[in-house]
């Protein structure tokens, strides 16, 4: 095959027929699912004649809510892939005693690398970015984010990175170097193939996107708050989003630098992290974890914000210890930059240095513990409703405490010398990220879904999914704690100690529950769409909410607020309802200026993803072309002067008054019927 | 929680693989420390785990309880407890870290009236090479140690980074090319203990295990003497074969040995370890020698020697 000489390398670089995954039945099947899935989606859109609609209403939209929803769609698609990958690894380990099992070592290594990279960069990050994008502007009484175009560019960079991950499943092999991609293993000397390059470029696109998202969110919070929304009146979710965005701004650049330098090592032969030539992988470890540890709190803080909202909302009570929670969040954000060495206590530095970082790590446990008790006190003397988001919150508080305990154990260098690199560590970070981040994100998805689409999600299937996530997590990951104490290393495709087997089998059963949880989420969505008339909540306030986003219709209009609100307290909407001023007619409406659609983000993201593909396969014309297009797109956009459109005051008045008229005919729903079709989105508190 | 702790206790089964069944002072201190930290942590963990379901149920909407205070949001006494208890607890735990930091430092020599045995460890792809410089022998796949005598491991890698660990004896430490790390352990009774690499280093990673044979000094001396009979010197040629990528079992086609007893070399090039280190950092060879000259006072406060 003409792959190394003539015109082939010029056109296709090192791409050849061998890049197709026919070397393994499982890889072929996985690639087929991706290809067939893509073909099905394209065919379906074409059949329905929805391309133009998709382009105008979604892909080029600069509406923060639609961008948020698209982020969550990416996260859900990637979550599906990565849960399946995780389950495949659990299944392998359940049969791997003195047995090579059904996954080759190379395939197993690719699986733990893609699973980790996807879960962090293309599930967790897009999910929380999407939730923040969707809810935060409404919570601070704003109509849009500060930089709508930048938002779209971030979205499409993330989508480009996610696309690159999907392409890697079909063309070529992904890295076997884990989600942290440690050199020298990922250097050209040991892994000359395309795998580490896929990892480098996918992660780089994601890290650039997140840096820009951080800037956007922080500026939005600083500049876009409505009248009276002083910082200490913001809902707690806004505070945790602020801390997360500041962490993003400072923590993602070290990652971009680390992957950039690694790319230089691989592409132009520098020696930043190589074994020889003066390179030192310790520099990579430091840079990576200088990102990696704040990243943990980037992931968890938005979820903490969601729990604060949900627990207060479903306890019908004001949040306990608001100031205390803000101080705790700030402490966590600052301390998160002071602990990165605990990821490599075993690298040979001095005992005193390890001790300092170990103690700093435990210090983070203080504000985190405070938060748990503040949430418990929020429930106290309230009226707790066990809705789906609340069940997730309760499970989170119990399970996260267990994760906190094991985190304190890992923070102790002397204990870490034993459990580092073991499945104890795997259990710990899944313990923080599944009950911590994932439950929070699914709770947020359930809580804010009506605001996005106008109807609630089916309660029963929500509970089934919730039960499966909780059972699945406990079975799949709690056994890994004793396994780790018994010396089982992580990332092992086969093992030889009979004592491990019972635990790995239980963990394998847990993986089945996690698959069932995923299936239940899909079922819930399908069932809810079918029942959308019954579940509709046009009143806009299905949960007797306390914050501003519940003061507007479900689904929220493009401009969010017909008239920008003015607040004089925390839990502003709750206060309106108490005063009976929640649904007033406004006297004056004014024209609303909203950003016009733009294809800049789409072009930018796709061009850089294509350039990345070119770099991965050494298709230099594509790499250069992609970079040039990506530079040209924002330059061209800067010549467009007409970037906004006006929604006339009359149209706003008409829509708003129509909604108010409809709302006044709705039956007020008591909390006893909150999860039944009688809930039309008008809370009894407002009607009283 | 009960389930978890009973799982932890069950984890003690399986012999010679875990620090929960310790075979040396380092591992047994680590085990005690593990249980001590868990016990202290129960001060905040248990209340949280009990209070969450209790409070949620006690104040459920359908419970008709009359004490509903929707605007109650702060209490100084509670605030002081909520912040104070974790602060005190972390201070206590910090003293545990600070107190044990020096004694459980992998670089710290283990107090003993016997002089330490030095073993040089070279990480290769999917196997560890153990060099006994004083005895002038080497082994792959098996590590013989005398009991009750401190062992001072000096580690490097001739490939990617790896992590050397014998869980039942104590800590793990990374082995990195061009650098030397150090680990001090002691086996206090005869046993066969599992040793391994815990840092993924490629497709044969799961096979990078070895048997640690902790044996009485007399048996150890006999093992050394037998090793010297092997008539298989570890010269340049042999080293280049051993350091090829592959598992220990793959070497059977090149050498005649029983994999369960390990591959033994009757003699070693004296400067093998230093040569491997210097291969990646020529300039470090001299500095490394001068570090040696400074003697033990320098150790334990040093980074991995470059």
Automatic annotation (TrEMBL), chain B:
Organism taxonomic ancestry: Bacteria, Pseudomonadati, Pseudomonadota, Alphaproteobacteria, Hyphomicrobiales
Occurrences of domain Cytochrome oxidase subunit II transmembrane region profile (ranges): 11-108
Record InterPro entries: CcO_II, CcO_II-like_C, Cupredoxin, CuRO_UO_II, Cyt_c_oxidase_su2_TM_dom, Cyt_c_oxidase_su2_TM_sf, Cyt_o_ubiquinol_oxidase_su2
Species of origin: Tianweitania aestuarii
Membrane-spanning ranges: 37-59, 80-99
Keywords, sorted A to Z: Cell membrane, Electron transport, Membrane, Oxidoreductase, Respiratory chain, Signal, Transmembrane, Transmembrane helix, Transport
Highest taxon in the source lineage: Bacteria
Name of the molecule in the record: Ubiquinol oxidase subunit 2
The Cytochrome oxidase subunit II copper A binding domain, residue ranges: 114-226
SUPFAM superfamilies referenced in this protein's UniProt entry, alphabetically: Cupredoxins, Cytochrome c oxidase subunit II-like, transmembrane region
UniProt keyword annotation of Aminoacyl-tRNA synthetase present: no
Main location: membrane
Ranges of Basic and acidic residues composition bias in the record: 284-295
Subcellular location: Cell membrane
Extent of Basic residues compositional bias: 296-306
Membrane disposition: Multi-pass membrane protein
Sequence segments annotated as region (Disordered): 284-306
Keyword hit for Coiled coil: no
Family statement drawn from the similarity comment of this UniProt entry: Belongs to the cytochrome c oxidase subunit 2 family.
